[in-house]
Amino acid sequence: MKALVTGGAGFIGCHLARHLADQDYDVTILDNFARAEEDEDFKKLVDRENVTFLKRDITLAESFTDLEGFDYVYHLAAINGTGNFYKIPDKVLKVGVLGTLNVLDWFVTQPKGKLLFTSSSETYAGALRLLGEKFPIPTPEEVPFAVDDPTNVRWSYGASKIIGEVAMHAYAKAHDMKNYVIIRYHNIYGPRMGFEHVIPQFIERVVKKENPFKIYGGQETRTFCYVDDGVRATQLVMESGTNGQTIHIGRSDDELKILDLAQKVFNVAGVSPEIDVQPAPEGSVMRRCPDIAKLEKLGFAPSTSLNEGIKQCYDWYEGKFT
Ligand SMILES: NC(=O)c1ccc[n+]([C@@H]2O[C@H](COP(=O)([O-])OP(=O)(O)OC[C@H]3O[C@@H](n4cnc5c(N)ncnc54)[C@H](O)[C@@H]3O)[C@@H](O)[C@H]2O)c1
Question: Rounded to an integer, what distance in angstroms lies between the CA atom of residue 151 and that of residue 322?
Fold first, then answer.
């Protein structure tokens, strides 16, 4: 079986490509290192016989012209990372929109294969803010989207995911494309996830012995899904009868307060700093939790506990901060 992973040098893409390579898939990774690093983990992966790496840019249509024969196309390439949504919103949009349209223009010429597009909970973040308590949480797939403030360039990312989802259905209709599925990741975490996320940031501050330890808000609840579970879920969705569907990937069984997340990081590190609670960041929503009933119906059950996942992250990140 042949699989193409766009964005396969990034966080989830690299874990996914390794997971597929472990099962003897013939894996092609397409990435331009816009965000990813060519680190040891990645070099080890592309050294494998059944893994090919193509350093290419998805915003260029010619990046795809010589590609063919894939059974599965996982489209993960995007410019992620909240800082980028503000710093380079034009590039975020270009990669998210033009890149995805290039993938689609190429994919519809292929005689076989299934295409998976990775969307995000950011697609419905505006509707959540607008509808407040009327918005369902845990959140099922069939909620409306809304861009509540188009002047806020943070929307470069969420809007590109909204367009990506619309584009998948539009190409399906226009080109009779049947084999496709959309997933929306919810807070996937794990080693090699970068530094712009609450878990590596808490680890960094613990390693640097911050005391008192500042928590901004802390009463907000979130759910976290370990990357190995996220990757298994991604393959399961791809390889199940999910054509035309949208499926949430994440967890809904271990929602916790950010304050309790910090405590878990302290426990893993064996520290007990004083807590200094500061006002919550502006605009942060009190609750975010996906409804994953559709994913569970496919047979998914997570296997890495939050404690175990934090430990894996701590072991991987600790040395990076010392
Ligand atoms: N991590 C999460 O919890 C999460 C949540 C929601 C959605 N997603 C989506 O899942 C996908 C993977 O996320 P991630 O966390 O692994 O992000 P990541 O930033 O680690 O990986 C994205 C990869 O895309 C590559 N890329 C960017 N522009 C490119 C271009 N023009 N051509 C080729 N490659 C390019 C980057 O170099 C990077 O390796 C993304 O589409 C992201 O938006 C992730």
Answer: 40
Residue with CA closest to ligand 1 atom 1: 188
- Angstrom CA distances, 62 to 54, 106, 163, 168, 302, stand at 13, 9, 22, 20, 39
Q: Summarize pLDDT for 53-94 with one digit per residue, the tens.
A: 999 999 999 999 999 999 999 999 999 998 999 999 999 999
Query: Hey, which bits of 180-314 come out as E strands?
Result: 180-185, 188-189, 213-216, 221-222, 225-226, 246-249, 256-257, 275-278
Amino acid at 157: Y
Q: What's residue 284's pLDDT?
A: 76
Examine residue 272 and state whether it is found in any structural domain, yes or no.
Answer: no
Residue 264's Cβ-count burial label (10 Å; 0-12, 13-18, 19+) is buried
Cα–Cα distance measured from residue 194 to residue 36, given in angstroms and rounded to the nearest whole number: 9
For the chain, what is the domain count? 1
* List of residues 6+ apart from 310 with CB closer than 8 A: 199, 264, 265, 268
Would you state the pLDDT for residue 151?
A: 96
**213 within some domain:** no
Strands 256-257 and 221-222 turn out to be antiparallel
We report the CATH number of the domain holding residue 114 as 3.40.50.720
Residue 257 pLDDT = 96
Residue of 95, 155, 185 to mutate, ligand 1, most atoms within 8 A of C-beta: 185
Provide the pLDDT for residue 89.
97
Atom of ligand 1 nearest to the CA of 122: 6
Structural domain includes residue 183: yes
Q: Is the pLDDT of residue 283 over 80?
A: no
Q: How far is Cα 97 from Cα 157, in angstroms, rounded to an integer?
A: 10
> What integer pLDDT is reported at residue 281 of this predicted model?
79
The residue contributing the CA closest to ligand 1 atom 44 is 185
DSSP conformation class of 95 = I
Per-residue model confidence (pLDDT) at position 185: 98
